[in-house]
Amino acid sequence: MTLLLAIESSGRNASMALFETVDEGPGGPFEHAPRLVQSVLPTPGQRGAVALAPAIDRLLSLAGASPNQIGLVAVTTGPGSFTGLRVGVATAKAFAYAVGAKVVAINTLDAIALRRADLGRPVVALLDAQRGELFAARYEAVEPLGDAATRILGPEGLEEMVQAGDLLTGPGVAKLTGALPVGAEAADKERWAPRAEEVGRVAAALAARGETLNPFELTPNYFRRSAAEDNWAKQRS
Q: Is 3:73 a contact under the CB 8 Å cutoff?
């Protein structure tokens, strides 16, 4: 049995989940959908590495599993909070290296979209990109598998992307201060946030396609420079 550890730390509320592979076929141990074994949240009030490492220990303890059983570590690498992404990626890299596991980089918008893929309709996942813009990706397929392009859009760009009948989801929906794009609908707020459960499901599908990395290849993908970096670049120009 091979276990998959999923880490989601792109926003204010991190989560972790442990999966086991269901069957092994020609595509390897991650060919089929994984079975959720256990999920946990870090201790309230704690953030960063001080919260993630103990949460992994608690997750394994609750599942009755050992670190060496984990063959794959999945983590959201962006977009999202610069600090949250750095901490999540660093934790995933260190753990995977220690146990000899492969890693999978997951787009945060994929995990967000998958929470609403059960409705069988096009989904637009949104995250706040600051500066009056949104990170956005539109998914036609039922199962988001890392194929949708992440874009940074203002209000006009979002109007052009969204089509009638689309479902808008993700924390970025809260930033739509005016009316929603014509013909679109907002998902329930309770299911906007990305979770480790969906991170693991996307990771298993990507691993079956051979899209794994060694720990040293894993890096955050912020999709844009921070405001501080932009200011520094302006001062240098």
A: no
Structurally, what CATH architecture does the domain formed by 110-191 represent? 2-Layer Sandwich (3.30)
Tokens 């949460």 — which residue?
Answer: 55
CATH fold, domain 3-107+194-236, is Nucleotidyltransferase; domain 5 (3.30.420)
Q: Name the burial class of residue 90, with classes exposed (0-12), middle (13-18) and buried (19+) by CB atoms within 10 angstroms of its CB.
A: middle
Residue pLDDT tens, the chain, 237 long: 789 999 999 998 899 999 997 656 665 666 667 999 999 988 766 656 678 999 999 999 999 999 999 999 999 999 999 999 999 999 999 999 999 999 999 999 999 999 987 778 899 999 999 999 999 999 986 666 677 899 999 999 999 999 999 999 999 999 997 789 989 999 999 999 999 999 999 999 999 889 999 999 999 999 987 655 455 445 566
Query: What are the boundaries of each domain within the chain?
Result: 3-107+194-236, 110-191
